[in-house]
Specification:
The chain has a single domain, classed as Ribosomal Protein L22, Chain A. It contains four helices and five strands; from the N terminus they run βαααββββα. It has a three-stranded antiparallel sheet with strand order 1-5-2.
Length: about 150
């Protein structure tokens, strides 16, 4: 498994083994991905899901990491990437009728949030343009059809 390596203009925070289903956490993470940090905080404040408390803690940690470790100004930060991975599932059993047992799955997840400056994406686009033309895909322009009546 590859480690998360942030770019110099980004900071990462993660919470592991959070006792929430990844499906439920992804629904909230999708709301803040790509937003400015202040707007993401506002969205999390007014979203009525239990997992928003955990996600907000991870967001605040990512902002603090950006401020302290990379000296990035807080007012310029954007949630550049955010994702939820599935963690280990706790298996419990519940007694049922006729001496049977049913498995209860208590799911966990790992929440990852990367904050950075929005210029990081622009820098990546500039690097793409600097690559040699032979390596880039280019479309060949086909000549436009002309009408025979025009001279």
């Amino acid at each position: 498994m590859a480690a998360i390596e942030p770019v110099a203009q980004e900071a990462v925070a993660r919470a592991r083994f959070v006792r929430v289903s990844p499906y439920k956490a992804r629904a909230v993470i999708d709301l803040i991905r790509g937003r400015h940090v202040d707007e993401a905080r506002r969205v999390l404040t007014f979203t009525q899901r239990a997992v928003t408390r955990e996600i907000r803690k991870v967001l605040e940690s990512a902002v603090a990491n950006a401020e302290h470790n990379h000296s990035l100004p807080t007012d310029e930060l954007v949630v550049t990437r955010a994702w939820v991975d599935e963690g280990p599932t706790l298996r419990r059993y519940r007694p049922r009728a006729l001496g049977r047992a049913t498995r209860i799955r208590k799911r966990t997840c790992h929440i990852n949030i990367v904050v950075g400056r929005p210029e990081a994406e622009a820098t990546a686009a500039r690097e793409e343009q600097r690559r040699p033309a032979a390596r880039r895909r280019t479309r060949t322009a086909s000549p436009e059809p002309t009408e025979e009546g025009e001279a």
